[in-house]
Amino acid sequence: MDLILAIGIGALVGSGVWLILRPRTYQVIIGLSLIAYGVNLFIFSIGRLRMNAAPVLAEGPINPADYADPTPQALVLTAIVIGFATTALFLVVLLVARGLTGSDHVDGRESN
Amino acid sequence: MGSAGHLVILPIILPLVAGAVLLLIDERRRALKASLSIIATVLVALTAFALLNIADLGSGGGAITSAYLLGNWPPPFSIVLVLDRLSALMLVLTALLALASLVFSLARWDRAGPHFHTLFQLLLMGLNGAFLTGDLFNLFVFFEVLLAASYGLMLHGSGAVRVKAGLHYIAINLVASFLFLIGIALVFNVTGTLNLADMAVKIPAVEPEDRALLHAGGAILGIAFLIKAGMWPLSFWLPNAYAAAAAPVAAIFAILSKVGVYVLLRLSLLLFGTEAGVSAGFGTNWLVTGGIATIIFGTVGVLASQAMGRLASYSVLVSTGTLLAVIGLADIEATSGALFYMVSSTLALSAFFLLVELVERSQDPVADVLAVTMEAYGQRFEDDDEKDDDVKEVGVAIPATLAVLGISFAACGLLIAGLPPLSGFIAKFILLSAVLGRGDMGGVTDVSTTSWIIITLLIISGLAAMISIVRAGIRTFWAPIEGVVPRVTVTEILPVGFLLALCLGMTIFGERVMRYTEAASISLHRPSGYIRDVLSTPPVPSSTGGGYVP
Asked: Where does the sequence pass through the membrane (chain B) (predicted)?
């Protein structure tokens, strides 16, 4: 489980980093989204990964060690919302840049 | 907690409410929007001064650091707002800059695009929140608020150059935000808390096997803030973005890079200060080295800049570099000098950004880029002037405009270069004496070499700034190709004069300002007071047993 998640986060962030270094704005925004997914999963995993465990506190005496930390789950919600909003804003700027410069190159002109 | 206790949250609430209300008012009712925006900013400034007073003299309880528990949960579980001398100083600085750039924008810039005032108020909210919060994740949220507003302001006025610079600015800041999140996650994983004061308590007790993870988290957080502060080699976005932004936006952006510096100062001294055990002094060498590299990069940029907007942007980098290098020394005297320098240089740079727009108004933007061969573009001046005439001027055109502009320009030059008699000189002088007088305490092994490098660079960067500003001044005021007097309205020159008058005030009342920065620096270097005051703040007892009753 840990390994799969780690590989998943690594693959997401790795492809994201590669994409944001590409010259097309569309590649950059996809790269940013992939990094955002990777980072959100990473924050989520900070609260410990547990399999076959109750998601909420059960009745009776409670051992906190049996449960995942809920704080990162709250944090990741905020991070998702903020990441989503800023990515949407970036998308608009990207479209404006395309309209103004007539090119989808990040520098507004081809670099040849 | 009396009504005075709630003052702490006003600098966040006021701009938020003002921004929301302004959103509902139609864009055509300019006068109403402008006056609402000004009123909100003036109120924030008054609150900031009241808070400065509270932070300096202590409220009734005598605690200098006062914490405000949001939701009335006991610390460390609640999100806290913390007011101490440093955050109060930053609040005042932000409010003063905001007033100046807002008044400046009323002359024409607020009409260059929709929702200028809303974005401006939200930027203020984000800035004030970032300075006040005592919680790492809350800091992230306020950072995003101020960044989201700054994205809008960066693009204000539109145009291909701004959109291009804005695209880079947004992409880089989004990546920095992701790094910020990763850093928070790592630090939270090790310490199990997001409250900065609680974190500072937990850090000395971190298990040795977790310490590498903690340091990795700290380093990643540091990189995120250094991107925002603009440390070389993370600063290539800054000159383009600041030079492309509209003048009042650039003027308020002058404090945006200082937010990164503020957070680094706060975190490095609180989390990795002298009381942090094994982790004490973590990352300070990097700050010094990075700061030195930034000063060099900024100085070369200042010398190479032909356009005044870029000159001002590279001066921002020199200022940031100086601050980072001096903060990295982790010395009480040096930090005190750094705070004085931060206030003085931010005010001066802000005034300079405003001034540049006024001075360059009569010039062709193409000529700025190729200023050396300006003669070739003489023909195009007239076309541009005709275009300028179409823009409706507000207020009276000042006679002898050039004289006023010239004097302000010279004052800005003196401030940025750090020459007497203005506050820039005092700031540089304190820095030099603090760096020179440093004993062999601190984590840096080759103390004298580092100090000498910083001293040399401080002087050289001042010289470079003087050369470039004098060169730009001569070209603009003494040797204009055509005798075009820029049209300047009272509302535009007043903010510049206001900011410069503040610097003059800092010179005259230098001792009082220094006493304040010294006290701020001492409490920063002894974080135990901050930690105790924050963690011992009791929740407000509720009189009814249910919910919070004010």
From this structure: 6-25, 37-57, 77-104, 139-157, 169-192, 212-229, 241-265, 285-304, 311-332, 338-356, 396-416, 422-439, 451-473, 493-510
Neighbour count for residue B545 (Cβ, 10 Å): 7
Best CA proximity match to B406, nearest among B488, B506, B502, B318: B488
For B168, how many CA atoms within 13 A lie in the half-sphere containing its CB? 22
Helix (H, G, I), strand (E, B) or coil at A45: helix
DSSP B74: P
Q: Contact B7/B90 with Cβ under 8 angstroms?
A: no
Cβ pair A35:B137 closer than 8 A: no
Residue A78, chain B, CB below 8 Å: the answer is yes
Cβ-Cβ contacts under 8 Å, A82 against chain B: 141, 144, 177
DSSP annotation of B109: G
Pick from A20, A42, A107: CB nearest B185:
A42
Q: Is the dihedral of CA B206, B212, B218, B221 positive or negative?
A: negative
Instruction: Tell which of A19, A22, A39, A107 to mutate to test the B interface (max B CBs under 10 Å).
Output: A39
Q: Where are the domains of chain A?
A: 2-51+66-101
CA distance A19 to chain B (A): 12
The arrangement of secondary structure in A2-51+66-101, i.e. its CATH architecture, is Orthogonal Bundle (1.10)
DSSP per residue, B431-446: HHHHHHT--S-SS-SS
What are the pLDDT digits (tens) for A59-75? Answer: 777 777 777 777 888 88
pTM here? 0.86
Q: How far is CA B154 from the centre of its chain?
A: 15
Nearest-Cα distance to chain A for B397, in Å, is 35
**Alpha helices by DSSP H, B245-395:** 247-271, 284-304, 308-328, 332-360, 365-369, 378-390
What distance in Å separates residue A62's CA from the closest CA in chain B? Answer: 19
The share of chain B scoring above pLDDT 70, in percent, equals 86
| Rounded-to-integer distance, Cα A105 and Cα A103, Å | 5
Q: What are the tens digits of pLDDT across the range B208-247?
A: 888 888 889 989 999 999 998 888 888 888 888 888 888 8
